[in-house]
Amino acid sequence: MYYMALATDYDGTLADHGTVRTESLEALKRLRETGRKLLLVTGRELPDLKRVFPQTDLFDKIVAENGALLYTPETEEERPLAPAPPAEFVDLLREKGVDNISVGRTIVATWEPHQTAVLEAIHELGLELEIIFNKGAVMVLPSGVNKASGLKAALKEMQLSFLNVVAVGDAENDHALLRMCGCGAAVANALPAVKDTADFALEGARGEGVEELIGEIIAQDFAFCTNARHQVQIGENDAGPVVITPPDVLLITGSSGIGKSTLATALSERLREQSFQFCVFDPEGDYEDLEGAVTVGSGSVTPTNRQVLELLANPEDNVVVSALGFELQERPGFFAELMPDISAMRARTGRPHWLIIDEAHHLMPAARDSASLALSDDRSGTIMITVHPDSVSPKALSAVTAVAALGPKGREAIESFCEATGDDLPEGLDRRHSDEEVLFWRRSAGAPAQRIRVEKPKQVRKRHTRKYAEGHLGEDASFYFRGPEKRLNLRAHNLMMFLQIAEGVDDETWDHHLRAGDYSKWFGERIGDPELADEAAALEEDRSLAPAESRKRLAEAVRRRYTAPASEKD
């Protein structure tokens, strides 16, 4: 479920001349029964609303006075969102002959044609107030206070994102509301300008239109209102932008070091720009410095479910969950323990909108059954990243809707995916593509793979620094100090452990690996750092260095690249 709430205007939208149809009330009840929330956003003052509409308890929140007052029917709590109107302003309006004035907790309202006198009074007193029109009504509020600002305050209390809200209105004061929400609708009787602002106009007028809208939300959810607000551009081709949307499950694949995490970083920037909340599962420390996100966990501290969920409770917080502190074999268990809580949050709030799961073959390995991985049936809004599609859980792969295959082995990556899922190979794999292009395949019947130019990140990050410095490399990627006759078997599962062991081993063992070129080989092939490998190779070739000196220089090179402040690193 994506659209989690409906925010409706009252007069001219839900109500006709102050009265709400019985059918409209029943429709609202049906929507609540789906687990969605209801918000009423009105220009009316609260006492007046209660007088004409006794069923306020149908709503979870009521934004009254055009955004200036927040009311919770369940507790009857009233929270002003703006200061009270200046008494001298009201007095001056009366002096100017403005009659039929209504004064609320914040709002001052009258009717046309008194807008000129109202504007004069604002200027004479030098007040920071603005006029908002509503089909003949003239409402005066502090600058910046409107239905959108009031709804934002209500959603913050409810821990909901405006992207998961459908709004409906009819008049001038609904423009900001419809623009802000994930989907904006206008009833048939709405002003033409309001229909232009909305994503679409309903066939029904007033309550009948709201009933129509509720039926579409229940029947189709996200599918009934797809707009640019929910599109995330992954790249472009000659025909234009290529996008993914929240129902998508994107698999990013390709050989190691080809740019998969770089593409994921670029997508995280697009998500931030569009106010999507995302959560990154980071097994190897690749995203520790991701801009606009809070990192939980490190190479020495493991994250907890509570830490992750407390941060995600705020729709404006993005989270990187670092599993670097866990041993490789512990990571699927941690992921399986956290996923039910994440899934429950998504079912309740629609957030986080996107999950980015790096090294998906580590966190969701094919070797574990789906039940032990605690994978929910709804995995929409997910980006999975892996070198080995065939090593990912078949249930996770079955949900994939699109594949982005990077590098010269992109064809092989899609072939691996299709072999694992039983899909037929798409057309378009044989066409040559440059290193700057990616094979993108939308997994639907008959869809060909296409070449696209992918998004590039604005931020520059040094990848894998923490992973290699403090993490737990697998047995095949670790360095083993064994010596000339293999008398030892000391495993270094990261660079810091390598330095600790190197400092303690005997000179004969140290020199054995130095002269064999083992250090440069490990740095180049397993750590993936050719510059460090070159430095090590130079030391290995310098026969004049004593063991103590070569140890010192190699340790300095490692620490300079992996533990020095960012400004001092190469």
From TrEMBL:
Pfam families: AAA_16, Hydrolase_3
CC per GO annotation: cytosol
Signal peptide boundaries: none
Gene Ontology MF annotations: magnesium ion binding; phosphatase activity
Source organism, top-level taxon: Bacteria
SUPFAM superfamilies, alphabetized: HAD-like, P-loop containing nucleoside triphosphate hydrolases
UniProt-listed InterPro entries: AAA+_ATPase, AAA_16, HAD-like_sf, HAD-SF_hydro_IIB, HAD_sf, P-loop_NTPase
PANTHER family: HAD SUPERFAMILY HYDROLASE-LIKE, TYPE 3, PHOSPHOSERINE PHOSPHATASE
This protein's name: Phosphoglycolate phosphatase
Annotated source species: Sinorhizobium alkalisoli
